[in-house]
Amino acid sequence: TQQHATARADQILRETAAAITPRPTLEVYQPGSGPGPCMVNPNDTSDKRVQVGFTYWLRGISTQDNTSVAEQIQRYWNHKGYGISRTSGFGKDAPNIFGVTPDDFLISLETSANGAMSIGASSPCVWPKGTPPPS
What is the pTM of this model? Predict the structure, then answer.
């Protein structure tokens, strides 16, 4: 259900943040958080499934700690069995990591132009109430 997907996305990110030293404060990035239409086929408006995503700014981390924090996140995600599909920017204190969990949530760590980092998770497409609506 949408409720389960929301809880799972939040759990992935909170557990990730808890594995980082120094421990960041999580600040919701509102435009990147909440439910949205399923984007399997953007031209198909009949698909009533949704995707749920959360993005949190990692506050309280200095830019000189970005690479160290990103390495911790990558180790944690590897330990959890999450697949890492792409990394970049580690040598420039502007790390980015993209991957997927075994239950198909997309995960990311991204560094903005000003050096602030955010982590995100988005669900696979789900029916809001868990099953397709009656036709």
Answer: 0.90
